[in-house]
Amino acid sequence: MRELFLVIFFLYGFSMQAQIKEFELQSGDLIFQEDCSGNTDNTIKAVTNSLENYQFTHVGIVYVDDNDSIYVLEAIHPVVSKTPLESYLFPKDKNCVPKSVVGRLKEIYRPIIPDALLLGLNLMGKAYDDGFILGNDKYYCSEFVYEILLKANCNQPVFLLNEMTFKSPDTGEITEGWKRYFARFNLPIPEGEPGINPGAMSRSDAIDIVHIY
Q1: How many CB atoms sit inside 10 A of residue 89's CB?
Q2: Under 8 Å between Cβ of 196 and 159
Q3: Which of 169 and 1 is assigned the larger pLDDT?
Q4: Do the beta carbons of residue 149 and residue 159 sit within 8 Å?
Q5: Which numeric CATH code is attached to 25-212?
Q6: What's the average model confidence in pLDDT over 128-134?
Q7: Domain boundaries, the chain
Q8: 44 pLDDT band (50/70/90 cuts)?
């Protein structure tokens, strides 16, 4: 049994490395993810429109350091973090592998990437924003990417904000999942407030989709 486990572990590790090496990421690339489990993620999917047939629940921005090590800067519970690429693509705390899609900023925005990443690195350790409210020195995933690109671009938005909704497109009512989510944190539901989500980002004209893991 132990030998079988070692073989499976080796094959899984080999497969991970092959997928990572088959495409060359660049600093500033956005990696959108559609999770395959979790109540909160399913709640997000219920009210999010994404690129094509995806229902993205998360996004992070790629950072390649001076040693060519690749990380993803992301706002995730409990704090904004610098996550190794392999851990981002193949999280060990999940019972399945999320779908990951790479969006590359168009050429006009490439010059702002170094400043955006520096701003992002300076936000490491900031608290995750459970309430999805802009401007409170806490960050949810797409807000984090939006803010660092906005500031690096002289406060001209790369991605546009929209009115957040937590309502089901089928019923027009706030979903029970979101009601439970905000009740758990004793927070108001910011229906109609300005915000941004990974799905909206994935459909933006500011990026080109360049790879699917």
Answers
A1: 18
A2: yes
A3: 169
A4: yes
A5: 3.90.1720.10
A6: 97
A7: 25-212
A8: low
Q: In whole angstroms, give the CA distance from residue 150 to residue 62.
A: 16
As a whole number of angstroms, the distance between CA 65 and CA 105 comes to 18
Q: How far is CA 25 from the centre of its chain?
A: 16
**How far is residue 10 CA from its own chain's centroid?**
28
Q: Locate 72 and state its tokens.
A: 């993803």
> Do residues 169 and 103 touch, judged by C-beta distance below 8 A?
no
Nearest to 142 by CA among 92, 124, 150, 91: 150
Least confident of 71-80, 85-94, 190-199: 85-94
pLDDT in the model for residue 10: 46
The per-residue pLDDT for 36 is 75
Terminal alpha carbon distance of the chain: 31
Integer CA distances (angstroms), 6 to 20, 50, 92, 125, in order: 21, 38, 16, 35
The two tokens of residue 208 are: 């080109």
Containing 105, the helix (H) or strand (E) segment is strand 99-105
Q: What is the pLDDT of residues 7-34, one digit of tens each?
A: 444 454 455 556 667 799 999 999 999 9
DSSP three-state, residue 21? helix
Query: Do strands 194-195 and 207-212 pair parallel, antiparallel, or not at all (unpaired)?
Result: unpaired
Distance CA 42, CA 28 (A): 27
Residue 5, pLDDT score: 39
Other CB atoms within 10 Å distance of the CB of residue 184:
10
